[in-house]
Amino acid sequence: MMQVDDLVPEDVRERADELIDTVKADPTLLAILLAVGVATLALFVWGVTKQVFKAAIFAGLASAGVWYWYFNVI
């Protein structure tokens, strides 16, 4: 069975370790990364929610239109 370490090249793992050490050494950078991460997550959730509401409104209007047409044709 393949290990995760086999999938990630050695130079990428070393670079990731360097980045982690840099973030641990600089609390300001950590705060900035956390703020950006939280903001982008909030924007993502807001965008998905907005699209869900649009889809629900469209589906409701389409359903109402189809039922109106069905009962008026018969």
Gap from first CA to last CA: 64 Å
Order of helices and strands: HHH
**Overall number of strands:** 0
The number of helical segments is: 3
Instruction: Look at the helices and sheets and give the structural class.
Output: mainly alpha
* β-strand amount: under 5%
Cα-atom radius of gyration: 25 Å
- Tally of structural domains: 1
Percentage of residues in helical conformation: over 70%
User: Describe the biggest sheet?
Assistant: none
> What is the typical, i.e. mean, pLDDT?
88
Are there runs of 5+ residues with pLDDT below 50, and where? none
Write up what this structure looks like.
The chain is mainly α. The chain has one domain. It is built from 3 helices and no strands. Helix 2 (10-25) crosses helix 3 (27-73).
Secondary-structure map:
Layout lengths: L3 H4 L2 H16 L1 H47 L1
Helix pairs in contact: 2-3
Outline of the structure:
The protein is an all-alpha fold.
Question: Which labels suit this protein?
Answer:
74 residues; mainly alpha; elongated; 91% helix
